[in-house]
Design brief:
- This protein is of the alpha/beta class and 251 residues long.
- 42% of the residues lie in helices and 16% in strands.
- It has twelve helices and eight strands.
- The protein has helices at residues 17-31, 47-54, 80-85, 96-100, 106-118, 131-135, 139-150, 156-159, 180-198, 200-205, 219-223, 240-247; strands at 6-10, 37-41, 59-63, 90-93, 122-127, 162-166, 207-211, 230-233.
- The chain has an eight-stranded parallel β-barrel with strand order 1-2-3-4-5-6-7-8, surrounded by six helices.
- Helix 1 (17-31) runs parallel beside helix 2 (47-54).
- The radius of gyration is 17 Å and the shape is globular.
- The protein starts with 5 loop residues before the first strand and ends with a helix.
- The protein binds 2-phosphoglycolic acid.
- 2-phosphoglycolic acid binds next to strand 8.
Length: 251
């Protein structure tokens, strides 16, 4: 496969600055000889601390969200300009927790995607179906809609800065992982959607991560699938004991 694996840790709303600094330092040490592309995405309040630790390492710095506007009267929001100021390189958008707990819809996510790309960030666009959508045969419909609407107005050049993360909602934080075959089927489908929108070449290059209870004992089987190019890891990214074996999975 010509695509490089991209292994990312989403720390969600965890860790204090001291804990985050320690974890980031351990990761810098242990992933220094890692072969893949790496990212960690801490909470906003930890970004400055972690930014100083991962500077000049092979670990990218990610944020978990951004405001849909550049700046202004938006109490409680964080702007792309502020993220750039902290050397954030990547922004995770459309995470299922943003979609379902905080009711972000495809139009809002699309606005954020375009703003982040305009400012030169890499975007990890998360998509994925709820359990009831899987049970009623709507997986493709949902993933297609979230992909198409999330990328509306994104041109082919900017697509180079887009990564898709397929995260079935029922697998996030539940200990239930999609089987490698089930995940692969959705990844292959999403790649076809990208081919329809941007052509075969763009589709063959785009990185599609899998997320949802990725652990040291299932990472290699998932990564062995043709269309799975990396992982977006939540719970298991909070400890080196679990994240390092995932990030350095043996194929
Ligand atoms: P999990 O979370 O690994 O804890 O299931 C994945 C994610 O939400 O990105």
């Amino acid at each position: 496969m010509s695509r490089n694996y991209y292994m990312a840790g989403n720390w969600k709303m965890h860790l204090t600055r001291t804990e985050a600094s320690q974890l980031a330092q351990d990761l810098v040490k242990q992933l220094g000889d890692g072969k893949h592309k790496y990212l960690i995405a801490p909470s906003f309040t930890l970004l400055e601390t972690v930014s100083a630790v991962v500077e000049n390492s092979n670990i990218r710095l990610g944020a978990q969200n951004c405001a849909p506007e550049e700046q202004g009267a938006h109490t409680g929001e964080v702007s792309v300009l502020q993220l750039k100021d902290l050397d954030v390189q990547t922004i995770i958008l459309g995470h299922s927790e943003r979609r379902h707990i905080y009711k972000e819809d495809d139009a809002l996510i699309n606005k954020k995607v375009k703003l982040a790309l305009k400012h030169g960030f890499e975007v990890i666009l998360c998509i994925g179906e709820l359990l009831e959508e899987r049970e009623t045969g709507k997986v493709e419909e949902v993933c297609e809609r979230q992909t198409v609407k999330g990328l509306e107005g994104v041109n082919a050049e900017d697509l180079h800065n887009v990564v898709i993360a397929y995260e079935p909602v029922w697998a996030i934080g539940t200990g239930k992982t999609a089987t490698p075959q089930d995940a692969e089927a959705v990844h292959a489908f999403v790649r076809k959607v990208i081919a329809r929108l941007y052509g075969e070449d763009a589709a063959s290059k785009i990185i599609i991560q899998y997320g949802g209870s990725v652990k040291p004992d299932n990472a290699a089987q998932l990564m062995a699938m043709e269309n799975i190019d990396g992982a977006l890891v939540g719970g298991a990214s909070l400890k080196t004991d679990t994240f390092i074996p995932i990030a350095k999975f043996k194929s």
